[in-house]
Write a structure and sequence with these properties.
This protein has 428 residues and is an alpha/beta fold. 33% of the residues lie in helices and 13% in strands. It has eleven helices and twelve strands. The chain has an eight-stranded parallel beta sheet, sandwiched between helices. It has a two-stranded antiparallel sheet with strand order 2-3. Strand 5 (149-152) and strand 6 form a beta hairpin. The longest helix is centred in the middle third of the chain and has 20 residues, at 161-180. It is globular, with a radius of gyration of 20 Å. Keywords: Hydrolase, Metal-binding, Zinc. InterPro entries: HDACs (IPR000286), His_deacetylse_dom (IPR023801), His_deacetylse_dom_sf (IPR037138), Ureohydrolase_dom_sf (IPR023696). Belongs to the histone deacetylase family.
């Protein structure tokens, strides 16, 4: 890395969300009721668990079973392709089973007594237009009307997908509103399809609508002055960054695998020199970590880079974007985090929230594709956010060897670059 970072020229043209017509803004986007919804549905809140902590320490989970209706199909991994010579094709990694296990571990695992459950809802058109262009939303509506469409590599809108995407967006907005209205300081939007790759004007990386981005705009529209987003999904949260690349009201921080661009839908590289433009110069902070950084490497990056940046920014609210695809055994990542690492990151996030944003954190679900281990890592993450004194679950896979020394050198180099290129971080 050079001694000074020059912001990289972007390969995309940022589209400002268009409000086209008043009618387009006010028209609700319909979603059919899921046949899976019933009085016994997991979206119905259970009775309060005996021995639960004080209300302030509860975590509100927002969920709707209709999100299981999205089916991205089968093929070779996420390609949707059948080469004709394989007897067994992969279920797309972003499938309903991964989230079924997340729901079940939270409902029946030891953390259940610390949670309250709330039903999600579909988003309306006017809400979607706070982040996305009207032209893009119309493209999705038309794609849904045709029955099925491949939007980009790995991203398939099939029957049921659009309804699930609307539920994911609306459920995340409901979770944010729950915090803004003072009902809880911590809320978790357990949603799919994921959203952090969805950009204002196109889909990307399994994502149709940017759930976290929509929630951030709701917070700003409700009167908050500054919101910080910390994204630990294994892939760069490029869509969220793109939506706020020109503003100093939102600090976006992404810790991710060093994967670079993956094609026309994802031209951003996630490199350290993509730091924002205009008023947003310095307010997009990328932390591309070496493969295999592991628990110690991530903890070091959080403490050396994220914590001081949040301290300088002083947000009114934190949005914690979580993906368990950074785990040691995820098919879509190589970062080697274990339950201990996720728990520690959750604790650090809680500490920052308590210090800077009156304890307020919105947690938004993104990736995580190991069917069982992702659920365990989610459980550990929420244990950390709740600041529980001891782990509630043992790690079923446990220790994975890691070499954090190289990662620490990389983090130190990034810190020096930030000090030299980001004005508000010159003395971190």
């Amino acid at each position: 890395m050079g001694s000074f970072i020059v912001p990289k020229a972007r390969r995309t043209t940022r589209s400002k969300t268009s409000a086209n017509t008043k009618a387009a803004q006010e028209k609700p986007v319909a979603v059919a009721a899921s046949p899976m919804e019933s009085s016994a549905s997991p979206s119905s809140p259970p009775a309060a668990a005996e021995g639960a902590p004080a209300t302030g320490d509860h975590l509100a989970v927002f969920w709707h079973e209709g999100m299981l209706a999205h089916d991205a199909g089968r093929g070779v991994f996420d390609s949707g392709r059948d080469p004709g010579f394989l007897d067994v094709l992969d279920q797309h990694p972003e499938n309903a089973d991964r989230v079924r296990n997340m729901v079940s571990i939270l409902r029946r695992g030891p953390i259940s007594r610390f949670l309250s459950w709330h039903s999600g809802r579909p988003a309306h058109a006017s809400e979607l237009l706070s982040f996305h262009s009207a032209e893009y939303i119309e493209e999705l509506v038309q794609a849904n009307a045709t029955g099925a469409k491949k939007l980009c590599e790995g991203t398939f809108l099939n029957p049921g997908s659009w309804g699930a995407a609307l539920l994911a967006a609306g459920t995340t907005l409901s979770a944010m509103k729950h915090i803004l209205d003072g009902h809880s300081k911590i809320a978790y939007a357990l949603v799919r399809p994921p959203g952090h790759h969805a950009q204002p004007d196109h889909a990307d990386g399994y994502c149709f609508l940017n759930n976290a981005g929509l929630a951030v705009n709701l917070a700003l529209d409700s009167g908050l002055k500054k919101v910080a987003v910390v994204d630990i999904d294994v892939h760069y949260g490029n869509g969220t960054a793109e939506g706020f690349y020109n503003t100093d009201s939102v600090l976006t921080i992404s810790l991710h695998m060093k994967h670079g661009s993956w094609g026309p839908s994802h031209p951003q590289s996630g490199s350290v020199d993509e730091i924002g433009e205009g008023r947003g110069l310095g307010y997009n902070l990328n932390i591309p970590l070496p493969n295999g950084s592991g628990d110690a490497g991530y903890e070091y990056a959080m403490n050396e880079l994220v914590v001081p940046a949040i301290k300088k920014f002083q947000p009114d609210l934190l949005v914690f974007v979580v993906g368990q695809d950074s785990s040691a055994f995820d098919p879509n990542g190589r970062q080697c985090l274990t339950m201990d690492g996720y728990r520690k990151i959750g604790q650090i996030m809680r500490g920052m929230a308590d210090e800077h944003s009156n304890g307020q954190i919105l947690i938004v679900q993104e990736g995580g594709y190991h069917i069982s281990y992702s659920a365990y890592c989610l459980h550990a993450t929420l244990e950390g956010v709740l600041n529980l004194q001891a782990p509630l679950l043992d790690d079923p896979i446990a220790y994975y060897p890691e070499d954090e020394k190289y990662t620490m050198k990389v983090v130190d180099a990034m810190k020096k670059c930030w000090q030299e290129s980001v004005p508000f971080l010159k003395d971190i």
